């Protein structure tokens, strides 16, 4: 029987990162995936012949520099682009853009309110401070509560002392961030609706909270997590791999292969062999068995436990606890092929912040209405739409003169109130996106060569991601840190020996790309007594 | 300075129940106290009013849930006439088809509960036990002043003591508490229970009075907080004669201590001299001086309107400006010519707290509607028939009904005038589907929207919590960090209303704790 030190299930981004770490540490690693190409939800896809884009994700976001450096990715041909923070277009024809340059950004805010331009300095300072406090918690493995009566008590007493040492103002700020609605939080700084909507739109993407839901303020910090803070005083930048997610996937694959790891596509794992609560290896769909010292699952927590194991082999209560993890689809993906470059007459010529993405959003009450529609499982009337046009950066993604457009439509329920999405509702959603797009880019409809609408359900059916939840589990505080994926299992280690979770269902979740994969690898290597080889 | 020949030690602004508690406590301690109430009667939200001659009802708040026994005893409220028509009032989740759920208080009731909900009964018992452990941890914190934030040693002592206390309650208490803090009650209930009606009732209790829906993060902790409040007050009670009886007894207690309660006396300014509050100016221009001023009205009004922004630090100003209470509940009081008939509701349960909250979905929809300034399509509510246990409230054989409608917006899109009638119709229609024929029993009625409650009973924003019960506005942070211990940065001025720790509801605690602070500051001298 074939045997490896470690098997990684799923060749998505985090699976590849974990495999790359393990392979570089000298382990024999095998990555298995049922799809025909690597990449998972970021896998590249042709929407029409010659038009390539990531099928399910938007394709923005980059690995943290630490992981890129650990894995020596630059040597494998990966480059990151620092893009501006994006631009939001409003239904009234106005827009608001983000710039990294502090002076330019202040001038942009001052178009709406001079007071807000001053307030931004305060806002930026507070956001950087909050991000500075949050980043270390997200960087390493989750801090799980110490076990045992005395150990636990000692740890908590020292935590009490550490809390008491935080300045009262800071303590309040931390609480505010995790309890306030984003709208209230922004009201404390800004007066312009456009400025507030721009900041809220960027923050609400991908989350299950509305801008006026308690605790949604925490999402405002996320864009600042990657910001070093020593830049030029403007908005946070967006880091993107040059060539899109495909380039990132390719670089990771090349690292794995170069270190002696192997990848097998079209190899679906249907079962995990387990003996005395110790994982022994995997069984493929064709009946083939492969032994492994450790198995890492890049699937979401529900798939990992509920579909790869015989339930009777799992410890008591685990099935229920996994079942309670909340995974909710919240976005649809719309992919488009265009035979000409779209024009945006309302935006300044060559607006540089377009590179960081284009958002179509109403003011905050409209966003809240969209969220309420989602809660009531209705198709959104005012969806929040985020758009990337990667072919502007990399013309090779489309035939000469053509472009690809990738859109995420936020607040799209997995199932409608009336039942599964009927075809006409799906078409109506596509039409709504086109209508919104045509408002900022008149005539764009004439250039559409192909258009596909992928609902949360499609994501689940095609990739196997439960609920089509791109966050792999809601990112509310009760499902983060030591509580991710669920209380009692914080981090990559599972109640089963030799079985690890390397998907964003585990800490740190989707907030740090590749973070879950890196954590799982370092947990396993720590177990084996090996150091991570930088 | 004297007023009417009296030299006062302390002046209490606002005669809501918290102002009365503060005044009564200071008076019983020997201080010469003046309580100035702008309206024509004391009590604030704890008042009894006549719907129509012969039919009286608690106008706003209608149940005494978290009023501590020790305050009752110390202020001799029994001697001053406070009696109870009902103690430990039961809670019943009403069902249209008559399968009502009585939340069990005794072993016998639990047996019936298990019969009705065999699948949920065991889980419910665990849920209640877990809630009780956490509430027992929180309850004492509500009855004491929070630690000073700017004193790291006191804060450290407090936190260490809390850790020990939690440890004594079991190793997982702290962990459970930290898990519950950010959780949404709806998510928790969905994970544990099957019965939509049970889930609706439990979530209703956790969210009542606030604007958040059951799926808002942080609402799970609200259930703990409410349970802790209940523990403070030892179960829900109905005062004989309605809530006004409580205020009456409190006012009598103030008078017995030699304090003056003056109605129709509006304070327009707090006098500040050399950085100290030294007295108040009344609307007629009269100045009354005292070394200690306690304000039971909203913190924002107190500091910005009565003290004046120029005496407030910039950072505090920013905080205070955002403290705009916005009520999220309306009150409807009805006079009925006979007892309404709820399908197969046991006769002894007609005096119970009747909840109409069929499921989490209904609560969620109502919350979402209210948030966008619209009326809930199917209102969720808490219904009491106080005249069942307190027959003097209505003529013989007739009844009064007191309804709190949850999730009603303060700012109604298109203005309230056009929508009052619609709300009443929806509420009556909803009631009618539970107690058929109720439309024909109505003799008279009144509706109080959040702005009505504000205007008529002086409750800022019509918000009975006087500011959100969110973690960043609780304990030492309530209403704002510099004001967290009932004190204000202005020497001589204290806050003693529901805007202060531990918050709203008829608990008397903010008033009691403010009196603590005043007494700690140098007694009644």
Could you please describe the fold and organization of this structure?
The complex is a heterodimer of chains A (534) and B (525). Chain A is of the alpha/beta class and 534 residues long. Chain A contains 15 helices and 20 strands. In chain A, β6 and β7 form a beta hairpin. In chain A, α1 packs parallel to α15 and α3 packs across α4. The mean pLDDT of chain A is 91. Helix content of chain B is 37%, strand content 16%. In chain B, α4 crosses α9 and α7 packs antiparallel against α8. In chain B, a hairpin with a 2-residue loop joins β3 and β4. Chain B starts with 9 loop residues before the first strand and ends in a 5-residue tail after the last helix. In chain B, the strands form five sheets. In chain B, strands 7-6-15-16-17-14-18 form a seven-stranded mixed beta sheet, sandwiched between helices. A five-stranded parallel beta sheet of chain B has the order 9-2-1-13-19. Chain B has a three-stranded antiparallel beta sheet with strand order 10-11-12, with helices on one face. Among the domains of chain B are: 179 residues, FAD/NAD(P)-binding domain; 111 residues, no CATH class. Chain B has 525 residues and is an alpha/beta fold.
């Amino acid at each position: 029987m074939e045997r490896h030190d470690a098997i990684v299930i799923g060749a998505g981004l985090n699976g590849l990162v974990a495999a790359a770490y393990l392979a570089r540490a000298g382990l024999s690693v095998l990555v298995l995936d049922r799809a025909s190409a690597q990449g998972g939800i970021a896998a590249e896809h042709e929407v029409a012949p010659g038009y390539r884009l990531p099928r399910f994700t938007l394709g923005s976001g980059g690995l943290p520099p630490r992981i890129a450096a650990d894995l020596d990715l630059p040597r494998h041909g990966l480059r990151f682009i620092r893009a501006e923070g994006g631009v939001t277009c409003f239904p009234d024809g106005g827009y608001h853009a983000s710039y990294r340059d502090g002076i330019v950004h202040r001038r942009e805010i001052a178009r709406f309110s001079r007071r807000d331009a001053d307030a931004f300095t305060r806002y930026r300072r507070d956001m950087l401070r909050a991000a500075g406090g949050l980043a270390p918690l997200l960087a390493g493995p989750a801090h799980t509560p110490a076990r045992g009566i005395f150990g636990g008590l000692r740890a908590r007493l020292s935590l009490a002392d550490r809390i008491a040492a935080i300045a009262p103002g800071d303590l309040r700020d931390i609480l505010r961030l995790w309890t306030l609605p984003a709208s209230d939080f922004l009201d404390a700084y800004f007066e312009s609706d456009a400025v507030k909507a721009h900041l809220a739109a960027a923050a609400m993407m991908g989350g299950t909270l509305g801008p006026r839901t308690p605790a949604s303020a925490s999402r405002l910090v996320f864009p600042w997590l990657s910001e070093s803070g020593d830049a030029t005083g403007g908005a946070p930048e967006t880091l993107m791999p040059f060539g899109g997610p495909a380039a990132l996937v390719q670089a990771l694959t090349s690292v794995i292969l170069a270190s002696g790891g192997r990848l097998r596509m079209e190899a679906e794992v249907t079962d995990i062999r387990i003996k005395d609560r110790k994982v022994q290896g995997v069984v493929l769909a064709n009946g083939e068995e492969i032994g492994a010292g450790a198995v890492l699952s890049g699937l979401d927590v529900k798939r990992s436990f509920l579909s790869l194991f015989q339930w009777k082999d799992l410890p008591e209560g685990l099935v229920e606890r996994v079942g309670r993890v909340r995974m909710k689809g919240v976005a649809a993906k719309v992919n488009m092929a265009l035979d000409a470059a779209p024009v945006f007459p309302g935006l300044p010529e060559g607006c540089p912040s377009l590179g960081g993405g284009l958002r179509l959003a109403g003011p905050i009450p409209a966003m809240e209405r969209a969220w309420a529609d989602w809660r009531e499982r209705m198709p959104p009337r005012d969806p929040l739409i985020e758009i990337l046009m990667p072919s502007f950066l990399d013309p090779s993604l489309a035939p000469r003169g053509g472009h690809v457009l990738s859109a995420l439509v936020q607040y799209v329920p997995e199932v409608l109130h009336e039942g599964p999405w009927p075809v006409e509702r799906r078409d109506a959603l596509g039409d709504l996106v086109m209508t919104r797009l045509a408002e900022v880019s008149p005539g764009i409809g004439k250039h559409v060569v192909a258009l596909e609408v992928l609902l949360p359900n499609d994501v689940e059916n095609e990739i196997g991601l439960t609920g089509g939840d791109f966050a792999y589990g809601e990112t509310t505080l009760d499902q983060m840190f030591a509580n991710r994926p669920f209380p009692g299992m914080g981090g990559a280690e599972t109640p089963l020996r030799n079985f690890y979770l390397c998907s964003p269902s585990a800490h740190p979740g989707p907030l740090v790309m590749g973070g879950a994969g890196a954590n799982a690898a370092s947990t396993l290597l720590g177990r084996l007594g090996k150091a991570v080889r930088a | 300075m004297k007023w009417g020949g009296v030299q006062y030690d302390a002046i209490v602004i606002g005669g809501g129940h918290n102002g009365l508690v503060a005044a009564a406590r200071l008076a019983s301690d020997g201080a010469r106290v003046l309580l100035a109430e702008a309206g024509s009667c004391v009590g604030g939200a704890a008042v009894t009013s006549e719907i129509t001659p012969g039919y009286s009802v608690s106008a706003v708040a209608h149940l005494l849930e978290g009023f501590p026994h020790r305050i009752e005893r110390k202020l001799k409220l029994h001697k001053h006439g406070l009696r109870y028509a009902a103690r430990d009032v039961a809670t019943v989740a009403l069902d249209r088809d008559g399968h009502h759920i009585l939340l069990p208080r005794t072993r016998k009731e639990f047996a019936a509960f298990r019969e009705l909900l065999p699948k949920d009964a065991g889980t419910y018992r665990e849920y209640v036990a877990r809630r009780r452990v956490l509430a027992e941890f929180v309850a004492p914190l509500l009855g004491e002043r929070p630690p000073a934030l700017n004193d790291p040693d006191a804060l450290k002592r407090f936190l260490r003591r809390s850790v020990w206390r939690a440890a004594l309650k079991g190793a997982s208490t702290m962990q459970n508490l930290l898990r519950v803090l950010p959780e949404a009650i709806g998510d928790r209930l969905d994970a544990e229970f099957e019965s939509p009606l049970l889930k609706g009732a439990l979530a209703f209790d956790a969210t009542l009075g606030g604007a958040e829906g059951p799926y808002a993060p942080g609402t799970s902790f609200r259930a703990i907080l409410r349970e802790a409040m209940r523990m403070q007050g030892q179960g829900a009670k109905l005062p004989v004669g309605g809530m006004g009886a409580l205020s009456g007894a409190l006012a009598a207690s103030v008078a017995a201590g030699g304090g003056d309660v003056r109605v129709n006396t509006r304070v327009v300014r707090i006098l500040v001299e050399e950085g100290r509050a030294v007295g108040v100016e009344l609307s007629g221009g009269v100045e009354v001086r005292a070394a200690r001023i306690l304000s039971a009205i909203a913190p924002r009004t107190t500091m910005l309107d009565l003290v004046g922004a120029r005496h407030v630090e910039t950072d505090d100003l920013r905080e205070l400006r955002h403290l705009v209470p916005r009520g999220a509940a309306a009150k409807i009081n009805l006079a009925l010519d006979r007892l309404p008939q709820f399908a197969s509701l046991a006769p002894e349960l007609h005096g119970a707290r009747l909840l109409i909250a069929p499921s989490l979905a209904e609560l969620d929809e109502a919350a979402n509607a209210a948030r966008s300034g619209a009326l809930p399509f199917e209102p969720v509510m808490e219904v009491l028939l106080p005249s069942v246990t307190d027959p003097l409230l209505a003529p013989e054989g007739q009844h009064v009904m007191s309804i709190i409608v949850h999730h009603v917006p303060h700012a109604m899109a298109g203005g309230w005038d056009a929508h009052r009638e619609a709300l009443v119709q929806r509420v009556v229609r909803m009631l009618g589907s539970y107690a058929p024929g109720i439309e024909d029993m109505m003799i008279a009625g009144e509706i109080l929207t959040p702005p009505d409650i504000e205007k008529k009973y002086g409750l800022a924003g019509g918000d009975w919590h006087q500011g959100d019960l969110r973690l960043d506005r609780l304990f030492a942070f309530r209403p704002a960090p510099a004001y967290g211990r009932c004190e204000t940065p202005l020497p001589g001025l204290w806050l003693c209303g529901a805007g202060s720790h531990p918050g709203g509801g008829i608990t008397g605690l903010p008033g009691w704790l403010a009196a603590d602070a005043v007494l700690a500051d140098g007694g009644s001298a």
